[in-house]
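User: My collaborator sent over this chain with a note saying "see what the structure looks like." That's all I know about it. Can you take a look?
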Amino acid sequence: MVKSKVNEAIKDFILYFIYIVSSIGLLIPLFWMVSTSLKTPAQIFKYPIIWIPHPIVWRNYVDAFLAIPFLRYIGNTVFIAFTSIIGDLLSCSLVAYSFARLRYPGRDFFFMLMLSTLMIPGSVTMIPQFLLYKWFHLIDTYVPLILPAYLAYPMWVFLMRQFFMTVPFEYDDAAKIDGCGYLAIYWKILMPQIKPVLIVVAIFSFMAHWNNFMGPLIYLNSQEKYPLALGLRLFQGLYMTKWELVMAASTMALIPPLVIFFIAQRYFIQGIVITGLKG
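Assistant: Without extra context I'll predict from the sequence alone. Here is the result:
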């Protein structure tokens, strides 16, 4: 018994040691970015690397904020991200509800067909989508960046379907007895039951649209419509040698996703665990 506990303790120690070392390895680039954002230009490429700058140059953040229309880029990104989140939650939950709770011929076939689209590389559909949006005169608008969110993303449909299937079907039967239709069951009965997975999808959607670079690069021409990811690239082009300003701007762009993740961390982990283990 004692030997078994010792072996378990040694095993836990090794695992935690591996986790800590891996975490440090992943955090080094982040620490270097923050450190570089507080350095003078002479300290950036100095060898050996200066991890803790001296003196700390807080002015870099002010200069980075004033060098480009930072607030405009943030406003554009927030508009795109939150508009897309609404679309992702509505469209994916509706499709997932159909696959999980309704019974109709070919349901499983269509579900597998939808999942199979995940194997199609984005580069294959890039040119046809661009030509389609150009034909509808939607280039240099936010429509190509927002509209796909209202057409249901297969991966998030899969996550929601797995969560829907954990809800007892007795809820549907009881609601039908009380006179609820399918949409009423979806909105009033099931949606409140799947809050964890909704938060998971909302976080994934926010991260995807907050960091989206390729889409704005393809569809947007006007600089005043740029989101933050594309604006930072323009900023880097204007200040190629001023890496301290580039890193300061990148650090400021990283703050909102980190804040949102830590606020919703409990629901995020709960949603991942349930959707990954049940279904």
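A starting point for your reply to your collaborator: The chain has two domains: 2-56, 60-277.
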